Amino acid sequence: MSFPKPFYRWRPHPWHGLEVGPEAPAVVNAYIEITPFDLVKYEVDKATGYLSVDRPQRGSSAPPSLYGFIPRTYCGPRVNALSPSARRGDGDPMDVCVVSERPINRAEVIVRARVVGGFKMVDDGEADDKIIAVLQNDWVWGGARDITDLPTALVERLQHYFATYKLVPGAESRIAIERIYDREHALEVVEASMADYEDEFGS
Questions:
Q1: When comparing pLDDT for 61 and 142, which is higher?
Q2: Quick one: which of 22, 43, 48, 40 has its CA closest to 31?
Q3: What is the span of the domain harbouring residue 36?
Q4: DSSP-based three-state secondary structure for 149
Q5: Average pLDDT value for the chain
Q6: Which residue has the higher pLDDT, 97 or 62?
Q7: What is the number of structural domains in the chain?
Q8: CA 112 to CA 135: how far, in whole Å?
Q9: Element containing residue 193 per DSSP (H, E)
Q10: Does residue 7 lie in a domain region?
Q11: pLDDT of the residue at 6
Q12: Could you tell me if residue 6 is inside a domain?
């Protein structure tokens, strides 16, 4: 049996074909690329929408939460305007970390997540914010409404992961986590990324 090319037209693209969610920016859909069990950096291929290997992690640091992106978002001029030290947005969908009490050990799943805060991160001059969220209806973390509701140690682990996940021994780091921000600013960042997506790709 043969399929017309490209056959992936029958599969919604995780970035463009999924919805951001009816309660966005407060509660969003998150497409998960990496789990806390992964020592390889996976990333959705922008052309096909399939998960691809970006790189094996060089160091021993593992992601302390689920990690992926919010569909139909884009880090463009509006996101960049909220990160004055950056030259531009990174041109990717908005990254999101989702905290879950129960282990979720597979990627390529969609979860509903409540936004609680984020990191103002600049990677080689590009705005590369990391939104922090909790799994909606999670029995332990579902009641969290702000990043201050999460344990300090967990926030520190997330911060350490992103500060080191591209680190090459002997080379100067090009990543700066400029600050940790609260839910109010995180909602503003997500809204900016949704507007950037509309400008770049349309409805």
A1: 142
A2: 43
A3: 16-201
A4: helix
A5: 91
A6: 97
A7: 1
A8: 6
A9: helix 183-201
A10: no
A11: 52
A12: no
